[in-house]
Amino acid sequence: MSKRGTRSVPEISSGSMADIAFLLLIFFLVTTTIANDRGIALLLPPKIEDEPPPEVTKKDKNIFKIQANSKDELLVEDEILEDLDELKEMVRKFILNFGDPTKEAVETYNSLPPSLKRYVNEHGRQDDNSDGPDEAVVSFKADRGTSYELYIRVLDDVNAAYNEIYAERIGLSVDEFLALSKRKEEEKELYESARVGLPRAISIAEPTKVGG
To answer: 14, 66, 113, 127: which is deepest, by most CB within 10 A?
Structure first.
């Protein structure tokens, strides 16, 4: 038999398999996108220094009170709200009320587009509601037993009411308004013009330990 027929088949070296596996691991770590749960974007209050901040007083009618108890019942202005779908419109009416407007609030009204002026003339002249957008504060207080879903739903609806007003004021859809970039000077100015005289005043109180 010839030497060619008796030659053994060379073995495949497995010494570099660990190196190959390591390189593949690095590849997947570098190229894989990991989802990031951003949570709720909230601006925390500044740290209290030696002297406490001055007490801020507001007329009761200038505070729109929303409370959620441990049974996931929502109380709006001390009355149970059965239909959560009504909350956003209630907040909108509160923000755009000009019950006893300041000079600044009158200027804000004059700067509104016709559609928002019509809305104010139809819904926003209630004496027992907020004096004006510059005085209006939406207050939300939950119970420690309140579900996460209800908590997020309330904040979403409150913020949606503001965003819809801002978008309509400058003639954009809500999605277009939210897409405005603060890094671009022109879009930043447009964003800020939507908010002049209409501050997003949302107060989130510390949850109570026990609720009914």
So the answer is: 66
